[in-house]
Specification:
- The active site is at residues 17, 44, 138.
- Residues 6-187 form the CheB-type methylesterase domain.
- This is protein-glutamate methylesterase.
- By secondary structure, the protein is an alpha/beta fold.
- The chain is 36% helix and 18% strand.
- It has seven helices and nine strands.
- The chain has a seven-stranded parallel β-sheet with strand order 3-4-2-1-7-8-9, sandwiched between helices.
- The protein starts with 10 loop residues before the first strand and ends with a helix.
């Protein structure tokens, strides 16, 4: 079985929509404090939404890692969860985080696609993208760019997601490296980051690869 791993010092780019806050809370609670990589938690929002404050409070309450709202020009640090600020896109340029209101012609700000596309081009094979429960297709172009740049792509199992539309679109429009339920994601993240923490990491990554192939086939045949 061909298991895809990111190159050294990966960055995890995680996107979801309004139904995904509970998923982000679960990840914040169960990713261990010793996790070495930076993670970006992006719940896309319509322009001007104040929901970011609620997201930040939830993640701060449950996270074992440092949680940070990035400043423009700040450098990405390991073992940190980044939550974009209100009404700003977050763009990665190398290890530097850029906050901007451009592109303006998008319904969402922050947008999953904007983060993932910039992350794909900056980190290439070290980029790991994750699409969780959500509607519509913000994040799909970003996922495809991660694939084009040689990174690792992950989708939550549609039958495990509160809203399966975004994970289903990932299967329809790209070829996720791994598909798995939310409960198994902390172990998969540790495996991909080269961090031995969960005893079942090696079996979970194999199962997630098999599920990705099977789900992709099922979706195409419908």
């Amino acid at each position: 079985m061909n298991l895809k791993y990111p190159s050294s010092f990966p960055v995890f780019l995680i996107g979801t929509s309004g139904t995904g806050l509970r998923a982000l809370r679960f990840l914040a609670e169960h990713i261990p404090s010793s996790f070495p990589s930076p993670l970006f938690f992006l719940l896309h929002r319509v322009k001007g939404s104040e929901l970011q404050r609620s997201i930040l409070n939830v993640i701060n309450t449950y996270s074992q890692l440092e949680v940070c709202v990035p400043q423009d020009g700040q450098e990405v640090q390991p073992s940190t969860i980044y939550v974009p600020p209100v009404d700003e896109h977050l763009i990665l340029e190398g290890k530097t985080m850029i906050l901007t209101k451009e592109p303006a012609d998008t319904r969402w700000r922050p947008s999953i696609d904007t983060l993932l596309i910039s992350g794909a081009r900056s980190y290439r094979t070290a980029a790991v993208s994750v699409l969780l429960s959500g509607g519509l297709d913000d994040g799909i172009e970003g996922l495809r760019e991660i694939t084009r740049q040689g990174g690792v792509t992950i989708a939550q199992s549609p039958d495990d997601a509160y809203n399966p539309v975004l994970p289903l679109n990932a299967l329809l429009k790209d070829h996720p490296s791994y598909v798995l339920p939310l409960n198994d994601m902390p172990a998969l993240f540790c495996e991909l980051a080269g961090h031995n923490y969960f005893p079942d990491q090696s079996s979970i990554i194999q199962k997630a690869a098999l599920t990705a192939a099977r789900k992709r086939k099922e979706v195409q045949e419908k």
